[in-house]
Structure formats: structure tokens, C-alpha cells
Amino acid sequence: MATKSKANTAAPNTFEQLLDYGKNNGYKLDWLQQRETFGDELDAPSNGGGLLLQDVDSGPFAEVPEWTNNVTGRPRGALTRPSAARIGKYGIRTKADVWLKNGAQLYEEAVQRQWSSATDIPWNELEELPDEIEQAECQLATFLTEVEFVAGDVPGRWISETSPDYYEPRMFLISQIMDEARHADVFRKRALANGGGLLQQNSSAALAGASIDSARDFTEMSARLHISGEGLVLSIFRMGERMAYNNAEKAIYRLAASDESRHVAFGVMHLQYVSQTDPERTEEIHSYLDEIELGLVAGTGGQNPAVRGTPSNAAIMTLLGGGTDEASLREGEQIAGAVRQRQVKEYIQRIKVAGFGDRFTNGRAAAGLTEYISA
Amino acid sequence: MAQAKKAKAAKPADKVDYEGNPLPDLPDLSWMGNTFQWGTKALPERYGGGLTLAALNIGIYGDIPEHIPHRNRLPRGAVPVISAGNIGGYYIQDKYEQWADSSPYLYEEGISRRWSTATDIPWETGRGLSDDVEVAIAQVATELSNWGSVESEVVSAWLQNLSPGYHEVKYYLSTAVYDSARIEEGYRKRALLNGAGMMLESPGRMNRACLESYGSWSNTVLFMWILRGSLMQAIVRYLSVYGPTEADRELAFRILPDIMRKSAYACDHIRFAISKKPELITTFNAGLTVAEFAQLSDFNDPVLWEALAIIFGDGVENMDEGMKIVLELQQHFLETYISKCSQANLGREAQIKSGAWAGILMGVPMTGHATPDEMRAQVAAIMQKNSGKK
Ligand SMILES: [Fe+2]
Ligand SMILES: [Fe+2]
């Protein structure tokens, strides 16, 4: 959002005189030049939103190449040095492989919505809970503090794989690393703050193949992480009102959900960009979604706390039903079933927004999905 | 929840797991009570500091082992499941390879000082510079943005290798990579503020040294946050005083504590590593000798120094005066570097004072304008003058 509100104060010959003066005094100054956007002042932010990343670039700095030869790690639009070493081992040098339309906006939103697990949770409002409820809180918190590491460490790996010509998605992924550290931290805090402790590890953390860790392509990783894994967790967080027993827990779920919805949005918007710009990948993406849906229906993958037969699901049932007696567990199971339905419905909506919704009408989507919705 | 309502809940149909095996009718609750320590009650700070990460380290949760045997995401203190197996990465499993006692505090400090380049910088004050100073600040901004970008690449790539068992370190580093990204975008905003834009890319030898330091995380820390970090700190500190506009000074002033936290982690970590493995002193010194060479190579490129001299002198016509401040900055960098190394228990003073850097400390700037012979002659002249004074 640049406006040419400032005429160049120095006529070119004046600028050249300065250069000559410097050079005559032993300086090189070969870098001192006015680029084509020189004098285009960015609008002073007047609406209180500040100077946002999405409003900064213009001219050559705003040109995001479809394919980039920037392997020296220079900022996008910077002038090149012939002597610069090729230090960037960037596997991602094609725009569609990582791009989304609103990456800078999502980054700025993340910056604005940072919170502190130390001071923004009313920890003093935790109160003693019946033992089985505290056990369930702590088991779910143990699960979540473990899987939150996935969502920080895996994006971390892809940042250094991505050319800085695509710095907007990189910036967003960095904000996600920050968010996930806070999530892992806040659930550890919950487990250790109310007379409980950590319970047992998530037993299926290391399923080989088709996992978030092992994806060899960014878009596939993003579908597994942002759309599937984090989508599932987001649906759980949104149930926080019903799972929480006090204001501290409510605040944890609410704040984590607001971060998580950004992470899911990144995945949806990236997939949408792929669907709009790289139709050759359509069939490939559908085949990733086939696997993701298998996980959604069958509970493979180890990232969904609501999958039946896992300690985290038993914990959710206990929390939702209010105890471990049979009647409570049955009620909890019913509500947990509604959570699973909600997970599936939200998944379907995201895939539609991403541009792959035809699979739900042409018979390609996993059969079990419709069962969940109609159940 | 009323009992009557509960009784009405229907018994669900037979359930199977994803392989078709029947699931128990009611959930297995054998995980209940499966803990190494129950009854844990970490308390919030009394006077408004909230519940901090460090406060969680009580009882067995505060036992930080020398080695983490698992290569997966077992939260420290949770009960491991034997079948969980390994996940790729997480091979930095020893405490000496990453630990710093300060990490939980630096993590909370980083979060409590969160700020935004969008809203916390008075950008409207960053106007009205002469063209040469505007281009010069854009050149410096390009260099700093480039460094921030490299830092975020380097640190984020290491996260997958650092064991989650030392989660305090991983959490702190997550704030550090976020801080580095803010340097990258904050200086991008500055460069574009008046259209000057991103200028010439970094000469990049020190960037390369940081990226090539993958032999050990400790080496990365030494190169990036003790050696390069000292230079970045010096430049940003000088910009916080001599920045040409209030926006420039405020941006630098805001970034400075972010850099200081990295430096604190770095010194603390290296000191800890040496306390556990004194033989690392030799390894670290050898590494620094190589990295200093890369840093020297960047010093001999005039672009950054000319840009700073224009900023400090307020224009090309006053560059000679600006270069005097550049010399001060370079001296400040070396003093900072020497002091950080000694904080970390690595003595580098003798090497710095007798090697290629010595001229700077004696008053001869290293800016790529003089040949080595010319610089030696300048040093000799200073020494002669000083001996004459005595
Ligand atoms: Fe998360
Ligand atoms: Fe997330």
C-alpha cells in the first residue's frame, strides 16, 4: 500500500555528486543506489492496526516468483552478489508447493494474538477435583503435551527447506512453532498444577508411514498436520466448555483453540491455492485425503485424542460424563460420539473450502464418514 | 449431571477398533494411577508472575537426567509406553548438548516481553531523511533482515533433533526463532518504509558458517549467538542510539533484549557443556577459530560499514566522522565477544588480541578499504606514536 507522496529530494545529479564525493574520498559506494520504488512511502497506519507485513511489499519486492533461483538466502527482491555462496538447501523452490494467499495476514494475526500460559490462565481458579476427574484431566494433558511437539518440530523442519522468496508462509510456520511451544507448555502446566501429575505416554506415537513426521512433500505434510491432525484437535478444544471443570481449563481450551484455528486455516488456504493453481496435483491430493479419511474413520495415526480404545479417549469420556461409573461413562461416550461427528463435519467443510469437495458427492470419500454424520 | 439422565443413555452397539477387533464395552481405565508421581501441585508466583515453567520442576518432574534414552516425544516424567518406539530425529539426547539452567526463565521472559513490529514502532517518525541516509539504512536493514532469516532457518531446523525430554530448551528456542523472524520482518518493513527497499544481499560468509555448523548444536550456538550475536548486538545497540529517526531507534531498542536472551542462553549453555565435558574447550576453540575467519571475511566487505558510516555521520559528506563511530562499534563488538566467551568459560582474549582482530582494538577499523599491508602500517604507526608518548 505504497503511495508516491514524497518526490525525490535529491535530483539524480546531486545524488551522483554525493557518490563521486564519497568515491573521491576512498569509499566504494557501489551499492548506494535508488531502486525503482525509492520515495514510495508506505501509508502511515491510521486505523490502529499498525504497519502490517501484507502492506509492505511493492514493485520487485512484491513479485513472488513461480519458481525461484534464490539459493543464497537473500531477502526477496534484494540485489544479488555474484560472490554469494549457495547456502540455502531449499527443496521448496516452487511457489505452489508452499504458498497461500493470506500468509502474511495470518502471521500478523498470530503476532497480535500471542498469550502467556503463565499469566493469561487464571491458575488460582483451579480447585480440587474428584480423583478420577483429575486423573482424566492429567491423562488428556499428558497426551496433548506430547502431540503438541509434533506440530512445532515438523513445521520447523520445513522452514529451512523453503526459499526466503516465499517468506510469508515461512513466517507463519515460525509463529506456529511459537504457538505450539506454548500449547505443550500449558498442558504440562495443567497436569502439574492441581494435585495430579503426568500419566502415560501416547502409545501410538511412532506409527510408521503416512504420519506427519514422515511426509516427504510439504503439501502432504500440511494436509496431515494442519487439516487432519490439528483439525481434529481443534474440534476437541472447541468442546472445552463441556470438558472444563473450572475457568482455568476453559481459558486453556479457548486460547489454544484460537491458535489452532489459525494453523488449520493455513492448511486449508494452502490446499486451496494448490487446487486453484496446480490442477495437475488434484488426483495426488485426493489420494492423500483417502489416507487421511481412513485415519479419521479408523483412528490410525495416533494424533486424534477422541479415537476409541485409547487412554485419551477414555479420559475425554470421563470428563464429558463426569465420572467413571458406568452411567457417567455411557453419557460421556455419547457426547464423545458427538465430538467425533463434529470432527468429521468440520473436516468435510474444510475440504470443501480447499476445493476438493467433489469427493463427498462422487463416492470417493471414505464410506465411514457419512456413517458418522448420519449416526 | 442427574443420575436419571445418565440411566437413559443407550448402550452403544458393538464396537470394533480399526482392525476390526472388538473393543471392550466400557473403556479400559488401566491407565489411571499409572504415574511416577501423583499429588503434584505447582504453584503460581505470589505477586502476579503467574504459573511459570520453572515452577513445574518439583519432585520427579524437576529431575533432569543427563541422558534421555527415548527418541520420541515422551514428556519428561510421564510413564513411557514400551511400544512407542523411535521417531526420526531427536538424536541430541544428552543434557550437555543443549541444556542451560536459564532456559525456562528465558522462555517466560520472551513471552512476557512479546511485542509487534506492526503496532509498537512509531513508523510515522521514520520519514524525511536525506536520500543517501535513507538508502544506507535500507542497506543495513537488508543485512539484518538477512541475518534474522538465516537464524530462523538454522534454529527451526535444529528443533527436530533436540530431545523433547529437555522441553525447557525447546520451548525457549521456539521463542528465539520467533524473535529472529521479528528481526527479519521488522527490518524488511524498515527497508520498505520509504520505498528504498531491500538492497544488496549479505556477503554471507558468516551466514554460511552458521548454516554449516550442523556438527553440533553447541557449535551453532557459539557461531550464531556468541560470535555473530555479539556483532548483531553491537550494531543494534548503536542503532538504538545513533539510529537516524525515532522509528529506527525504537526498532533497535525493542530488538536488543531479544538478542540479549539468545546471548544469555548461549553463554549459559556453553558454560554448562564445558562443566560436563571440559575437553570441549578444545573443540569449541577450534570451531571458533574457523568461524572467526568467516566473520573476518565479512568484515573485509565495505558495504555494511559504508552504510553505517553514512548513518552515523548523517550523510556521505560526513562519512569520515561516521567511520570513527564504526570503529567504536567494531571495538564494542570485540569487547562484547571476548566478554561473552569468558562468561561461557572459553578464554578467547589472547587469540583476539594477538591475531587479525588486534588492529581494531588498537584503533584501525577493518572495513575492506585498506589492504592488509596498509592496515599493518597503520597499526605500526599507532604503536610508534604510543611508545613515543611513554
Ligand atoms: Fe497446538
Ligand atoms: Fe497447532
How widely separated are the two ends of chain B? 91 Å
Alpha-carbon Rg of chain A, integer: 25 Å
CATH class of the domain at 100-363 in chain B: Mainly Alpha
Rounded average pLDDT of chain A: 90
Greatest interface (CB-CB under 8 A), with counts per chain: A-B, 144 and 137 residues
Shape of chain A: globular
Number of helices of chain B: 13
Count the beta strands of chain A.
2
Share of helix of chain A, binned: 40-55%
**Structural class assignment of chain A:** mainly alpha
Query: Average pLDDT across residues of chain B?
Result: 93
Named CATH architecture of chain A: Orthogonal Bundle
| CATH-assigned homologous superfamily of chain A | Ribonucleotide Reductase, subunit A
* Low-pLDDT ranges of chain B: 1-13
Q: What is the CATH class designation of chain A? A: Mainly Alpha
What would the CATH topology of the domain at 100-363 in chain B be? Ribonucleotide Reductase, subunit A
Largest sheet of chain A: 2 strands, antiparallel
CATH homologous superfamily identity of the domain at 100-363 in chain B? Ribonucleotide Reductase, subunit A
Compute the separation of the termini of chain A in Å. 50 Å
CATH fold call of chain A: Ribonucleotide Reductase, subunit A
Q: How would you describe this structure in keywords?
A:
heterodimer; A: 375 residues; mainly alpha; Ribonucleotide Reductase, subunit A; two-stranded antiparallel sheet; 53% helix; 1% strand; B: 390 residues; globular; binds fe (ii) ion
Task: Describe what is shown at a glance.
Chain A is mostly helical and 375 residues long. Chain A has helices at residues 12-24, 103-112, 131-159, 167-193, 218-238, 240-243, 247-277, 282-298, 311-321, 326-354, 367-374; strands spanning 2-3, 41-42.
